Amino acid sequence: MEAFREALRLVFSFDKELWQIIGVTMRMSLTSTTISCLLGIPLGVLFGSTNFRGKTMLMRVLHTLMGLPPVVAGLFVFLLLSRSGPLGSLRLLFTVEAMIIAQCVLITPIVAGLSSSIVGATAPALLEKAKGLHLSRKTILKLLLAENKITLISVVLTGFGRAISEVGAVSLVGGNIMFKTRVMTTAIMLETNKGNFEFAIALGILLLLIAFIINYAVSFFRKDGTVLR
Amino acid sequence: MIVIENLKKYAGERLIVDVDSFEIKPQDRLAVIGPNGSGKTTLLRLLAGRLKPDEGSITYRDSTPLPYYLPQISQSFSLSVKNNLLTCLPKSIGMQERHNLADAALKRFKLEALAHKNAKRLSGGETQRLALACLLVTPKKLLILDEPTSAADIESVDLIEKVLLEDSIKNDTTLIFATHSPRQALNLATKVLLLENGAAAETGSPEELLKNPKTEWGKRFMEHWQI
Description:
The complex is a heterodimer. Chain A is mainly alpha-helical. Chain A has helices at 2-12, 16-49, 55-66, 70-81, 96-132, 137-147, 149-164, 168-174, 184-194, 197-220. Chain A is 76% helix and 0% strand. The radius of gyration of chain A is 20 Å and the shape is globular. The model of chain A is unreliable at 224-229 (pLDDT under 50). Chain B is an alpha/beta fold. Chain B is 36% helix and 26% strand. Chain B has helices spanning 40-47, 81-87, 95-108, 124-136, 154-170, 182-188, 206-211, 216-225, and strands spanning 2-11, 14-24, 29-33, 55-60, 68-70, 142-146, 174-179, 191-196, 199-204. Chain B has a six-stranded mixed beta sheet with strand order 5-6-7-3-8-9, with helices on both faces. In chain B, strands 2-1-4 form a three-stranded antiparallel beta sheet, covered by helices on one side. The A-B interface holds A 125-126, 128-129, 131-136, 139, 143, 146-147, 149 and B 48, 50, 66, 68-71, 73-75, 77-79, 87-88, 91, 131, 134-135, 144.
């Protein structure tokens, strides 16, 4: 109980270390979500709305990647960015950029897979009409995005939720360095191991609050794509 | 002119379209009539190029124009009614002219009051009027329509048939449409094709075929409609 009270005091006292960790977390999560969505949504729209040779196998690979264990993603990126790795010369290991790369490896397949499912459900009827009217590919793409904009927003929020709660990959490639690559999840792990429960609980409360806000925002958009009033 | 020769289309083992030989001349208004599952939709999709035949051919001769196809279940785009119309206009037309054409289509199809409404919230009849409006916002030379009034109320049916007939005559349009209604065929068509189990059971003018069907199925069908 005492630890809980102390945690609340830390939150409202604007503790420098606490808010620095939150800053790194938000920067990492927002950047990786943006990049993943810029890559994943167009891929998902393409997969969901077209048929091509090899699509079935590609979708199986995508679904496998959606379940990629975070530490495996972290290991992959670590080996890529380590000094002896192919991208070692970039000296990105143990930086926020490395964490962003690892998160993109994790989140892009999730965004692409979810987008593909969403678009795949609505695309056939829309394409049947649009092609009958000989609309251009650019117009058809705009219509597909308009048709699914609400549910695609929920995909973006899901991607962000995944990014902010990630711990395995980011601790591998980030190193959990104080005032540099320490994020909320890795800090909770460290502080709990150190027995510094007040700090861990403070971060936990804030992480829970962010997760709640995201989940509320996701559920705010109904499955059929309309906004609940 | 569109020439069908030995056209076959299968769904697995089942033969769903089997038309030996048929011609659709320019400015024909062809009604394709048949019960559910008779192959009307498949035939129309083959004619529109949305499906490829498994056997036989569909040949488009003498500079046959591009076919514009309206599927049976035609959902509106997630835009306002007017924006649905604007989307269907070519970008080569100037902005002012596009708005003029869209406004004219709204008026013809009695959709003016709904111009700014989300098209997804329209009733079945309004949706079908909008679908036809999108198709006819500019003149078309070859139209393929799958049951264009299936969800429409009586007033919408009358309006759609009136506009289709007027436009077809004015623009020398070749019109191919599937319908369950012999009355619609009588109102709109110059030629009728009766389909049964994917095959052309009978063909002829609406008057001779609908009033004097030769096949057993044709007679049963017309008795039901009391033509």
